[in-house]
Write a structure and sequence with these properties.
Chain A: InterPro entries: AAA+_ATPase, ATPase_dyneun-rel_AAA, CbbQ/NirQ/NorQ/GpvN, P-loop_NTPase. Chain A: One of its GO terms (molecular function) is ATP hydrolysis activity. Chain A: It holds the Pfam family AAA_5. Chain A: It comes from Thermomonospora echinospora. The complex is a heterodimer of chains A (304) and B (370). By secondary structure, chain A is α/β, with parallel strands linked by helices. Chain A has three domains: 167 residues, P-loop containing nucleotide triphosphate hydrolases (Rossmann fold); 34 residues, no CATH class; 91 residues. Chain A contains 15 helices and nine strands. In chain A, helix 1 crosses helix 2, helix 10 packs across helix 11 and helix 11 packs across helix 12. The longest helix of chain A has 16 residues. Chain B has 370 residues and is of the alpha/beta class. In chain B, 47% of the residues lie in helices and 13% in strands. Chain B contains 16 helices and nine strands. In chain B, the strands form two sheets. A six-stranded mixed β-sheet of chain B has the order 6-5-4-7-8-9, with helices on both faces. A three-stranded antiparallel β-sheet of chain B has the order 1-3-2. In chain B, strand 5 and strand 6 form a beta hairpin. The longest helix of chain B is centred in the middle third of the chain and has 18 residues. The N and C termini of chain B lie far apart (70 Å). The chains are: A alpha/beta (304), B alpha/beta (370).
């Protein structure tokens, strides 16, 4: 994406312009999401995204990083995630090695040795620290805190601390402050109510499944090899599947997978025969597949 | 013409009155967001407000209503606030003849000898007088209804267990490279999630209040890992309402939140909605799920059976509390009960204080029976 390399966060003047830039990276937004991302960029307030699985929460962060031409720093949350994995950790083996070397060399200045041991070079930056350290006014880094609802509430507490003033205090070293706050995107699948204090620090956006026209456009943008007809058929079927009573209605991610599978098989048309062999790309539960097959793939593809 | 800030503050007040948690800090954020956008563009104003004032999908329809009303020039009072509902619910009159009523209390020689509290513990909550009811409610509020603990993925320092390299090496560094002692760490334990689904349909009306109070006690003792819902003809999440410390305030909030008190039952559909919207995503995974209902299913019971099977696959344990179970000669013959029972780990009554204590015990006791 060389034509985007010149984009500075401060040069993007309106939501529409950001939407255009995201578009050029293959991510189609609507008014709401473009405004949300634009405000996150200008106000440097974390963006809290919720919505069904597969509506493009994670993809937005990736595309934002692409637009700003910075690496995406991703923190995948899980239960038990702690400071040593999210913020920073000391590189103990190297510290020990340094100590041994100093001993062998006969260093006697204990105070100096101690300050050397807790030097920045022995510190391993984990995603949150890395995001603060690499973020500059010219090039803010993009931090994705993915599925924050999977982490436990202890983690929320220190995430809150980092996100409210973008500093991390390391007792042995001092406080690390971001030269420029990073652009932060948090995603949640709502398996758990995230604490209100955390949400209050953020802009909140609920992502819906896209409309038929937008879904066709997304498929065409992401998979140029699929022609308009096929993309239209897949999008139509996906919309019908969402209205159906399924355990896991397909998201955009699934329609993309499905189209990709069809393209890989060289299918030019989504007909009952090709749909039957590729159904696993879009429906991930046996019950759902049975249900749809029982109702007839013909009905799914041609309505009725 | 009013200033932008004034307009926004007025709008935020409308939104707040509609039940969206638009606190002053959020309003400030909205004003600042508008600095970056076009104040005269309705779409920009809409999104600036929606992104900053809302924090839950449930807020969005309310916000949309307020936005339409406020900016179309109507006055702020278009918001419909549900009328305050009295907390004390009228009880269905005892169906049984008064043979054990009125005089029975004081005249019965047996009850005279045992303590009044002990008698009250075993009385069916549907047949209490106002004073007794207040006492039982007070005792329910005191119930310790926390859940059993499960092993967490989080490690914490412990006297024994697996080696903790970080703390050990830190210690070594402190002692100039000498290994003086090994440090250990072990998995912590956390309370297992409890999810309560309370049937508030007509046939459960005499018991719903007590069961919701039990849910309040569970939310209070279980902390953030406890969730409660009401089911009738609509599924309502009550966790937020039940967070109030004071039981009566919580019950007032709950009775405002539930739109379908004493309506019909469509338990199968409700359970399906619960699993679709919350359960499968993670709320029911590994949780203890308590369903408080009499199983009077108006819809097709096979749906309830299928959903119970699905719930059983997700949950750690499924507990069913049916107040009618305590009646002499009760047989689980209703279509709903027969469909559900094969997928239930514990089948209890929950009709009296003692029965609720038993339920609390089941939540805490872990795999005593399973």
């Amino acid at each position: 994406m060389t034509q985007n390399a010149a984009n500075r966060a401060s040069d993007i003047g309106s939501p529409q312009e950001l939407a255009r830039l995201l578009d050029s990276c293959g991510y189609l937004t609507d008014d709401g999401l473009a405004t949300a991302a634009y405000l996150a960029l200008r106000m440097r307030r974390p963006l809290f995204l919720e919505g069904e699985a597969g509506v493009g929460k994670t993809a937005l962060a990736k595309s934002l990083a692409q637009v700003l031409d910075t690496p995406l720093i991703r923190l995948q949350c899980y239960e038990g995630l702690d400071a040593a994995q999210a913020l920073y950790d000391w590189d103990f083996p190297r510290q020990l090695l340094h100590l041994r070397t100093a001993e062998a060399a006969g260093v006697t200045d204990v105070a100096r040795l101690e300050s050397e041991l807790y030097d920045r070079r022995f510190l391993i930056a984990r995603p949150l620290l890395r995001a603060l350290e690499t973020s500059t006014a010219q090039r803010p880094s993009v931090l994705l805190v993915d599925e924050v609802d999977r982490a436990d509430d202890e983690f929320e507490a220190f995430l809150l601390e980092v996100l409210s003033d973008f500093t991390i205090s390391i007792p042995e070293l001092g406080t690390v402050r971001a030269a420029e706050p990073p652009v932060v995107v948090l995603t949640s699948n709502r398996t758990r109510e995230v604490h209100d204090a955390l949400k209050r620090r953020c802009l909140y956006h609920w992502l819906e499944h896209p409309s038929y026209e937008r879904e066709v456009a997304i498929i065409r943008r992401r998979l140029p090899q699929a022609d308009r007809r096929l993309a239209g058929q897949v999008a139509r079927a996906a919309q019908r599947l969402r209205a159906e009573d399924l355990l896991k209605p397909p998201g955009v991610a699934e329609s993309l997978d499905w189209t990709e599978a069809l393209v890989a098989l060289g299918a030019r048309d989504l007909d009952p025969a090709t749909a039957a062999v590729t159904l696993g790309a879009v429906l991930k539960y046996r019950e759902d597949q049975q249900r749809v097959t029982a109702r007839g793939l013909d009905a799914l593809l041609n309505g009725g | 013409m009013r200033s932008v800030t004034e307009t926004i503050v007025g709008f935020a007040r409308t939104v707040r009155a509609a039940g969206v948690g638009a606190d002053p800090e959020r309003v400030q954020t909205m004003v600042r967001a508008l600095d970056h956008l076009d104040v005269l563009d309705p779409s920009d104003v809409y999104w600036a407000g929606r992104l900053t004032l809302c924090s839950d999908p449930a807020d969005l329809p309310r916000y949309d209503r307020c936005f339409a009303a406020y900016f179309s020039g109507q006055t702020a009072r278009t918001v419909r606030r549900p009328p305050p509902v009295t907390v004390t619910r009228t009880l269905a009159l005892p169906a049984a003849p008064r043979e054990d009523g009125e005089d029975g209390e004081r005249a019965d020689p047996r009850t005279a000898t045992s303590s009044a509290a002990e008698v009250l513990r075993h009385r069916d909550v549907a047949r209490l007088g106002a004073a007794e009811r207040a006492e039982v409610n007070r005792l329910i509020a005191l119930l310790e209804a926390g859940a059993e603990r499960r092993r967490s993925r989080r490690l914490a320092p412990a006297p024994s267990g697996r080696l903790d390299p970080h703390r050990t090496v830190r210690e070594v560094l402190r002692h100039g490279g000498e290994v003086s002692r090994l440090r250990h760490r072990a998995h912590r334990t956390r309370p297992r999630r409890v999810v309560l689904l309370v049937d508030v349909s007509g046939s459960m009306a005499p018991y719903a209040d007590a069961l919701l109070r039990f849910a309040h006690a569970a939310v209070r003792s279980g902390g953030r890992t406890t969730e409660a819902f009401s089911a009738g003809t609509r599924l309502t999440r009550l966790t937020r309402e039940l967070r109030h410390r004071d039981p009566d305030t919580a019950m007032a909030a709950v009775s405002q939140a539930i739109p379908d008190w004493s309506g019909g039952t469509r338990l199968g559909e409700e359970l399906k909605e619960f699993l679709d919207r919350f359960g499968q995503r993670g709320l029911a995974r590994g949780a203890i799920v308590v369903i408080a209902s009499d199983g009077w299913e108006r819809g097709d019971a096979s749906l309830l059976g299928a959903q119970m099977a699905r719930l059983r696959r997700l949950a750690h344990r499924v507990v069913w509390a049916n107040p009618h179970k305590a009646r002499p000669g009760y047989q689980p013959l209703t279509a709903g009960m027969t469909a559900a029972l094969p997928h239930v780990d514990h089948f209890v009554a929950g009709h009296s204080l003692a029965a609720l204590e038993e339920l609390a015990q089941i939540l805490k006791a872990g795999d005593a029976r399973a």
